[in-house]
């Protein structure tokens, strides 16, 4: 098997710097074979539980903005795709309080009309209050995560149980600093037929479907999720 890897330590600790990673994230139905394969064949290297706050906006599938653990601001940018594999960088990450430059960068990432007030840079709570007071173009979503992290060579893999409000689901992801490591892991895990959909893309489709998104439509997992929710309500 070709060596694969995933940078687990950076997942547990807040990433820094602008190093890019190739990513492939799917939201499979229960019982997908990738889950059993990862649990049986890939070394488990870490596990964690945390809650991140995503600032969902019209371009979340391209510019991902979140508060890691509700505390640290991260802005990730999707630079380009190789087939369906996405390449993401992190041009900005910072603790609070934000500098004036950081506040400007955040407003630009969210495509806001005008700058955020100076008070928004004081803390995550101040930022969320400022966003709530605006015109409804940004939708904060708290995502609770329970993650199992695996590593095989140069590729890291993740199985994550996700909860947002009353909705729960599971996502499987691959990450690697180089393209071959991630490309060679997709088919053995039977992931190639599933759409690569980042957190920003998935959250905007599920919880802000009225947003006019930039980018190419993928297959529509929201229909599956909404159907599952309707079935639960009818039971």
UniProtKB/TrEMBL annotation:
This is Uncharacterized protein.
């Amino acid at each position: 098997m070709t060596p694969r890897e995933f940078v687990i330590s950076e997942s547990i600790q807040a990433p820094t710097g602008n190093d890019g990673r190739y990513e492939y994230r799917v939201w499979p139905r229960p019982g997908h074979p990738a889950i059993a394969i990862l649990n049986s064949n890939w070394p488990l290297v870490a596990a964690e539980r945390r809650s991140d706050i995503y600032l969902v906006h019209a371009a979340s599938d391209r510019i991902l903005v979140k508060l890691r653990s509700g505390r640290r601001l991260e802005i990730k940018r999707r630079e380009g795709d190789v087939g369906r594999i996405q390449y993401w960088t992190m041009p900005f990450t910072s603790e609070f309080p934000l500098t004036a430059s950081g506040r400007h960068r955040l407003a630009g990432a969210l495509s806001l009309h005008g700058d955020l007030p100076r008070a928004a840079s004081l803390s995550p709570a101040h930022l969320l209050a400022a966003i709530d007071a605006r015109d409804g173009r940004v939708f904060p979503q708290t995502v609770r995560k329970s993650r199992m992290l695996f590593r095989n060579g140069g590729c890291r893999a993740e199985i994550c149980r996700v909860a947002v409000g009353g909705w729960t689901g599971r996502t499987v992801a691959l990450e690697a600093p180089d393209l071959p490591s991630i490309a060679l892991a997709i088919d053995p895990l039977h992931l190639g037929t599933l759409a690569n959909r980042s957190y920003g893309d998935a959250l905007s489709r599920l919880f802000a479907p009225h947003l006019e998104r930039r980018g190419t439509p993928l297959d529509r997992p929201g229909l599956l999720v909404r159907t599952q929710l309707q079935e639960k309500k009818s039971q």
